[in-house]
Amino acid sequence: QVQLEDSGGELVQAGDSLRLSCAASGSTLSDYNLAWFRQAPGKEREFVATLFRSTRTYYSDSVKGRFTVSRGTVKNTLYLQMETLKPEDTAVYYCAAGRTILSSIRNPTAYPYWGQGTQVTVSS
């Protein structure tokens, strides 16, 4: 069982920066891959970024070059640093955990554990 607590979302202006945090707890966390997804109103949940096997980063095309995913110095913490935010980044952002393989890292159904979500709103 894995518990995830994501936080850090707020209302910001376009062009601002924001950092989201995900605190993970539970047994055998080393077996799990952590990732960020987001879901905007009326849209499907979409992959944002992951730090696969704690070594390789992958991003969606829409955030590549603006967002950075990283592990925190505090054990089992995942961050998402978001720069140059745009109104289209507005969504509920979720941390997810799963025993994913590389070919499935972008598939939300590959992650059985989810945080409660944190709202990011970017005003123009």
Give a short synopsis of this structure.
The protein has 124 residues and is mainly beta. Helices cover 0% and strands 51% of the residues.
- N-to-C span: 40 Å
Alpha-beta classification: mainly beta
- Rg is 13 Å
Number of helices: 0
**What proportion of the residues is helical, as a percent range?**
under 10%
Characterize the quaternary organization of these chains.
single chain
Main β sheet profile: 7 strands, mixed
**Globular, elongated, flat, extended or rod-shaped: what is the shape?**
globular
Overall average residue pLDDT: 94
| E-strand count | 11
- Poorly predicted runs: none
SSE sequence, one letter per element: EEEEEEEEEEE
Q: In percent terms, what proportion of residues is strand?
A: over 45%
Task: Outline the structure in words.
- With 124 residues, the chain is mostly beta strands.
- Helix content is 0%, strand content 51%.
- It contains no helices and eleven strands.
- The protein has strands at residues 2-7, 11-13, 18-26, 33-39, 46-52, 56-59, 67-71, 77-82, 91-98, 113-114, 118-123.
- Strands 2, 4, 5, 6, 9, 10 and 11 form a seven-stranded mixed sheet that branches. A four-stranded antiparallel sheet has the order 1-3-8-7, with no helix packed on it.
- A hairpin with a 6-residue loop joins strand 4 (33-39) and strand 5.
- The mean pLDDT is 94.
